[in-house]
């Protein structure tokens, strides 16, 4: 059981570190505004990480309890929020002297919203949980779900700490400063791409 919980923690760290909208956003916040706003963003994002982990655990063991309507609503909300972030990124790129994105100025609240609507989180979390837990599915019960969630939280926090350290490195921030407008535009179009991908695969 301990080995399985450790594997769960490592898998959640992998989910956090897998490139996607969340990683791109924390990279932009951290390199543009520093480690503290990046840490606040990731702290808010943790709520979403744990929600997706719980949904993945329930789907893996008791899939019949989850209505497809839940995932449809979350997918649409995710796509709309990513479009909103993309528009904000383009506006910031057009006026680089205006400062960070709005979500960089209120990182905790935006991190929570971002985490709860991140379209990458559920399929990736479910995939890695399936590879880790499926062979011992009988160990996943109502009584052990809190332990798996705790392991998930520890894995996410460890990965978050690594990301905060990386985005605060002088070399990373220096490279970002040289190409900030172009990076911001690239992030914007990646947000649009993730939004389109989510809606195209809604079925």
From TrEMBL:
<keyword id="KW-1133">Transmembrane helix</keyword>
<feature type="transmembrane region" description="Helical">
    <location>
        <begin position="182"/>
        <end position="200"/>
    </location>
</feature>
<keyword id="KW-1003">Cell membrane</keyword>
<feature type="transmembrane region" description="Helical">
    <location>
        <begin position="147"/>
        <end position="170"/>
    </location>
</feature>
<keyword id="KW-0812">Transmembrane</keyword>
<feature type="transmembrane region" description="Helical">
    <location>
        <begin position="70"/>
        <end position="95"/>
    </location>
</feature>
<keyword id="KW-0472">Membrane</keyword>
<feature type="transmembrane region" description="Helical">
    <location>
        <begin position="41"/>
        <end position="63"/>
    </location>
</feature>
<dbReference type="Pfam" id="PF01810">
    <property type="entry name" value="LysE"/>
</dbReference>
<dbReference type="InterPro" id="IPR001123">
    <property type="entry name" value="LeuE-type"/>
</dbReference>
<protein>
    <submittedName>
        <fullName>Lysine transporter LysE</fullName>
    </submittedName>
</protein>
